[in-house]
């Protein structure tokens, strides 16, 4: 799979508003379980689980089992790799933040 195909898969995974909200909730670095995500998003556990599945398949989210719970967090290594792919494909200006950094 080439870089363009990989980026297309990432964009597909991020094309849903609920998945973007999940990414935002996980972006503070604190792992969260499905129950916590369910409460914060106000949707069912099965819906959260399905969205997490898509994000995990895209390599954006990882899960670590803690007892009977799985705590999810962002896959920082993959996010950095995707950022590099974006920069390589579209140029550094594409991946700069709104503040110009």
What does this protein structure show overall?
- The protein is α+β, with helices and mostly antiparallel strands and 101 residues long.
- It has one domain: Winged helix-like DNA-binding domain superfamily/Winged helix DNA-binding domain (Arc Repressor Mutant, subunit A).
- Helix content is 60%, strand content 14%.
- It contains 6 helices and 3 strands.
- It has a 3-stranded antiparallel β-sheet.
- α1 packs across α5 (76-90) and α3 (34-41) crosses α4.
- Proportion of β residues? 5-15%
Poorly predicted regions are: none
Radius of gyration: 14 Å
CATH architecture: Orthogonal Bundle
Comma- or semicolon-separated keywords:
101 residues, alpha+beta, Arc Repressor Mutant, subunit A, three-stranded antiparallel beta sheet, 6 helices, 3 strands, 14% strand
Task: Detail the topology: elements first, then pairings.
Elements: H1 3-13, H2 17-26, E1 32-33, H3 34-41, H4 45-57, E2 61-66, E3 69-74, H5 76-90, H6 92-95
Helix pairs in contact: 1-5, 3-4
